[in-house]
Write a structure and sequence with these properties.
With about 675 residues, the chain is an alpha+beta fold. The chain has helices at about 10-20, 80-90, 115-120, 125-140, 200-205, 210-225, 245-255, 260-265, 325-330, 365-370, 420-425, 445-450, 475, 480-510, 520-535, 550-555, 560-570, 575-580, 585-600, 610-625, 630-645, 655-670, and strands spanning about 30-45, 45-65, 70-75, 145-160, 165-185, 190-200, 230, 235-240, 285, 310-315, 315, 340, 350, 355, 370-385, 390-400, 405-410, 415-420. Strands 3-2-1-4-5-6 form a 6-stranded antiparallel beta sheet, sandwiched between helices. Strands 7, 8, 15, 16, 17 and 18 form a 6-stranded mixed beta sheet that branches. A hairpin with a 2-residue loop joins strand 5 and strand 6 (about 190-200).
Length: about 675
């Protein structure tokens, strides 16, 4: 256990006094001290590619009054820094009077050992295992073209000091071991990735050559993918395998059952307590008390002992996951679910180990009940909208089901739906519940970097010199040759903006019954100013982005949202290396998620009128095929005008339609 005051001018008694004095008029709060150490060792391309070690030490000081949270943190544990934080908290909450919560439960039960996995195994012994992994897989089959393996270790020591001098401590070990293998056959390359981990030492997983089982599973997944065929399209039944596919429960349902989203009424479940939200036999729990699991905690990050919380029981919503703040405001109790990313972040109610409990059916019975469907064994990247529960998940291992039998492996299967709806559609629950091997989806990017699926380019860097700022060549722009380019760019930007703003406005509820977008002139003016400013600064064309729909759906509908987003984009120029490091699978899942938000707008199409529906269908087909929103919209205008002529509805068409249709034809001709 770290002695946080050993190398500081701050003594424990002074820290306790400062905490008690600061929190005396508050409802809750604590001083959270954290000492974390982590390592990452990567073998790639027959050699040790990297070996990194980091250490972080600091505190977070939180004061809570009613629903106001004041928070201050520092990476320096000293008397000056703690007093400064205390002054900041007091100035924020100076007019508030509360009664401090001294009644939190205690427990002596631990769910993992007080060990430091990083120090338990020498660096040379870890390197030896990684080299053995590489040698073992390359000798296994001549089709093996690449092997990547890595160790990720963490040791976190925390202490929580509450008002009155109460101190609570915890030591949290965590390790992961990942293997990626790429096979090549007849020019086709496929990759298999597998990993294990939890709150134990490396030896608990790797002794007696247990690492070979991880290698075998990665090799098996790659072999399956090598024989896979493209996934069929359409709506069909899905059988989820045990273990890792429960990430769908975690992401699509679990987040919607976290207390803060329900207190703010942004979750689809916020008003359904005590009601039937799932099929009979569906029981979902969030359990922080399973020995050595990566989601388990002896205490949560505000000092409350963790527990096994039943969220949904036989289809009935029973509980939300709560930290103390949300529990108090919702007049219930904390479930020991208070989590924070590290000492720099405030506490939020978040999941631990979330799972659906076993049912009565065997896997064989479930497969036989499906005439045509998909058996999903493992997932990769995914995305979820907590407000609606809509989700998108990519399968990394899946098989087709034909006439009640497992058929060929398939590649590219994507599951799309929404959590609240699929809970009610569950028809069978298997009796073979299994926990995943210990790799969280939040680690997907880290695994991708470590296994070579994506390259980590760093976190931050100085932006490139802006030598192109206000660099103009107006004489060249006025030439006849450039007129075509300017017209094309104007055309593309206009239609991109018009289509995007209409779609986003639809999500925001800003489209009237007459089909007109409210305040469209202001939105177009804002976009035009951005386009002109972008051109003056030498950037690529500035335009509205359809991804804004996700933000609007989450509640961002004012100018302040745009201002904050703009400032964040400005800050992002310093984080270009990190942005370019994200694996492409994440982009794909995010774009699919946004498409799910907008696809519902097709219900507004007049399907009974072919002259109205046909152009819309052509636009939807053209956009992905031409990689251009503007091309799809332009084709819609041209086809709309032509269909109106041939159906004898020429006179009912607005003159503006004809102007835009003619300009569209000109655009296609000069492009």
């Amino acid at each position: 256990m770290s002695n946080f005051f050993d190398k500081s001018d701050l003594v424990r008694k002074d820290a306790e006094n400062i905490v008690s004095d600061t929190l005396k008029n508050c409802d809750d709060g604590e001083l959270y001290l954290e000492d974390s150490k982590s390592e990452s060792i990567v073998l790639d391309d027959n050699k040790i590619k990297s070996s990194n070690y980091s250490s972080d030490l600091g505190f977070g000081f939180r004061a809570v009054a009613e629903e106001v949270v004041a928070y201050s943190y520092s990476n320096e544990i000293s008397k000056v820094s703690l007093k400064s934080s205390a002054e900041n908290l007091q100035s924020t909450l100076k007019s508030i009077k509360g009664t401090y919560n001294n009644k939190i439960p205690t427990s002596n039960k631990k769910f993992y050992n007080d060990i430091n996995p990083i120090e338990q195994k020498t660096l040379n012994s870890k390197l030896e295992v990684l080299n053995k992994v590489n040698e073992y897989l390359r000798k296994k089959d001549g089709a093996v073209k690449q092997v990547t393996a890595n160790f990720l270790g963490e040791h976190k020591s925390i202490e929580i000091i509450r008002s009155g001098g109460e101190a609570i401590t915890d030591i949290r070990p965590l390790i992961r071991f990942n293997v990626s293998v790429m096979l090549e056959k007849d020019g086709r390359k496929e990759t298999g990735v597998y990993g294990i981990g939890g709150r134990q030492s490396y030896d608990d997983y790797l002794q007696n050559d247990n690492w070979k089982s991880v290698c075998e599973e990665a090799f098996r997944i790659a072999s399956v993918n090598l024989e896979s065929k493209p996934a069929p399209a359409g709506e069909m039944k899905v059988v989820l395998g045990p273990g890792w596919p429960a990430i769908l429960i975690h992401e699509a349902i679990g987040h919607g059952l976290e207390g803060d989203f329900n207190r703010k009424k942004t979750s689809a479940f916020h008003n359904l307590m005590g009601q039937k939200v799932a099929s009979e036999g569906v029981t979902i729990v969030d359990d922080g008390t399973i020995d050595n699991r990566r989601g388990s905690l002896t205490i949560d990050d505000e000092g409350t002992p963790t527990e096994r919380t039943v969220l949904i029981e036989n289809g009935i919503l029973k509980n939300f996951m709560q930290d103390r703040l949300n529990a108090r405001l919702m007049k219930t109790r904390s479930t020991g679910s208070g989590r924070r990313e590290n000492y720099r972040h405030v506490v939020l109610p978040r999941m631990r180990n979330t799972m659906m409990l076993s049912g009565k059916q065997t896997q064989d019975e479930m497969i036989k009940s499906v005439d045509k469907g998909i058996f999903a064994v493992s997932f990769g990247g995914g995305q979820v909208d907590i407000t609606s529960g809509k989700f998108v998940f990519n399968c990394t291992e899946a098989y087709e089901i034909i006439n009640g039998k497992i058929g060929s492996p398939i590649k590219g299967a994507t599951l799309i739906g929404d959590g609240p709806s699929i809970l009610k559609e569950v028809s069978m629950v298997g009796n073979d519940m299994m926990l995943d091997p210990g790799i969280g989806i939040l680690a997907f990017s880290i695994i991708a970097w470590a296994t070579g699926l994506a390259k980590f380019n760093g976190i931050a860097s100085a932006p490139p010199p802006m030598t192109y700022l206000f660099e103009f060549d107006l004489s060249a722009a006025m030439t006849a040759g450039m007129s075509t380019v300017i017209f094309t760019l104007l055309f593309i930007d206009f239609f991109d903006t018009a289509g995007t703003l209409t779609s986003v406005a639809n999500v925001a509820g800003k489209v009237g019954k007459d089909g007109k977008v409210q305040d469209i002139n202001k939105a177009m003016l804002s976009d035009s100013v951005g386009t002109v400013a972008g051109a003056m600064m030498g950037t690529t064309t500035v335009t509205s982005y359809v991804e804004s729909g996700a933000g609007v759906k989450a509640g961002g509908k004012t100018g302040m949202t745009s201002l904050v987003i703009g400032l964040l984009f400005l800050a992002c120029i310093f984080f270009a290396p990190l942005a370019t490091s994200l694996p492409k699978q994440i982009d794909g899942a995010a774009l699919l998620f946004v498409s799910v938000l907008f696809i519902r707008n097709i219900t507004d199409i007049e399907w009974n009128d072919i002259s109205e529906s046909a152009p819309a269908i052509l636009a939807m087909i053209a956009m992905p095929l031409t990689y251009s929103i503007s091309n799809g919209i332009a084709l819609a205008f041209v086809s709309y005008a032509l269909i109106k002529i041939f159906t004898g509805k020429f006179s009912s068409t607005s003159p503006a339609i004809w102007v835009i249709a003619i300009l569209s034809v000109v655009s296609f001709a000069v492009a």
